[in-house]
Design brief:
Structural class: alpha/beta
Number of helices: 10
Bound molecules: flavin-adenine dinucleotide
Number of domains: 2
Shape: globular
Oligomer: single chain
Strand content: 15-25%
CATH superfamily of the largest domain: D-Amino Acid Oxidase, subunit A, domain 2
Order of helices and strands: EHEEHEHHEHEHEEHEEEEEHEEEEHEEEH
Radius of gyration: 21 Å
CATH topology of the largest domain: D-Amino Acid Oxidase, Chain A, domain 2
CATH class of the largest domain: Alpha Beta
Length: about 400
Amino acid sequence: MKKVGIVGGGIIGLCSAYYLAKEGYEVAVFDESAMEDGCSYGNAGMIVPSHIIPLAQPGMIAQGMKWMFDSQSPFYVKPRLNTDLLKWGLQFYKHANKSHVERAMPALRDLSLLSKELYQDFAKENNSFFYEEKGLLMLYRTDKVEEEMYHEGKEAERLGLEVNYLSRREVEALETGTKTDVIGGVHYKSDAHLYPQKFMKFIKEELVRLKVEVHQHTTVKDFVFEGNKIAKIGTSKGTFAVDEVVLAAGSWSPSLAKKLNIGISILPGKGYSFTLKDRSQKPSIPSILCEGKVAVTPMNNDIRFGGTMEITHTGDTKINENRLRGIVTSINDFYPDMQIEMPKAEETWFGFRPCTPSGMPIITKDKKIVNLTLATGHAMMGLSLAPATGKIVTEIIAGKTTSVDTKMFQI
Ligand SMILES: Cc1cc2nc3c(=O)[nH]c(=O)nc-3n(C[C@H](O)[C@H](O)[C@H](O)COP(=O)(O)OP(=O)(O)OC[C@H]3O[C@@H](n4cnc5c(N)ncnc54)[C@H](O)[C@@H]3O)c2cc1C
């Protein structure tokens, strides 16, 4: 039986382990953390076929420049004299055009819809992670954003998604959990959501059942080569012989790729979330508060708010109070009856979204190292795209035709 070593035990690594083990591979996952609080745990839990437009899009550079001078803005690039940042910025600029977006949209849609089907299968087995299909409401308070949302909705409809355009009254009729102060909303019926921590618990239990070895607190340090193949993974707890390797180390993938002599451009997009427990009055439909780019997700009895995207480095673990305040202000503007307080630092979670400059995930076999598959760079959609990524990784390693076309996911 072929042995696969997976570097990184976030949602991408664990979903890859699941489908590989089901295909009959012997799988070991290595993660340097305790695997209980990283980017795959505190995120907003949205499964978003609606998100077909990548971050690299026309207009994003101009918008980003404006936001850079606003301390509470939802998007920010931390200025640094650093070659990785300069290369990333240049690549982002190259991709922020219409033709890239046109090619990206169907690829993201297909990957997302496949993922949603796979989540439905998981939920049928045991919905311990509160998977629900209520769609996603894009709420707005200004005419400018209404126009943008209308345009995005039409693009999504063109690609076959079901979209409803709602007046202020229609939003109020749909969102009965709390009062909304908006001028309207766009409802994507395609979207779903779940409780990320509970899904991670579920998938880990599945991996135990499938006899996958999960090595926590085990840092991957280097790789031993035999010709153009990785023969062993060197870790803080010894070396492990492998037949195949999957690199799924999220925002840390570039430094590991360097050890493999591969250049991958990924920078961490730091974001925050906080979760209010057992609130009786709360929004009932997952929503994005568009002007502030705040994600709002009901998760069983709890409600989670998430937002901000600071392109930074993995050493930047400070919580920026101004940006957190930006999230809180948006919530109180959109939901006037909620009136929530600034969360304390210890109640605030942060995570690093692994952001590629093209806004596309990387899911591909490496061109030079014959037994290496890359599965990383899922940015703000890693939870959404994880089951489909795991399935495709398995198909790539098994030499099968992939379930969706992967040419947009190559480097
Ligand atoms: C505020 C916020 C909200 C979000 N909301 C959503 C959402 O609603 N929907 C959605 O789809 N996505 C969302 N995301 C994005 C999503 O969380 C990420 O895309 C996803 O978690 C990335 O998963 P990953 O497995 O690639 O990386 P990670 O979860 O970061 O996992 C990588 C793992 O690699 C390990 N590692 C690193 N270096 C080493 C090493 N040398 N040796 C061993 N292990 C190593 C790390 O410890 C880590 O556990 C959100 C993110 C944020 C921050």
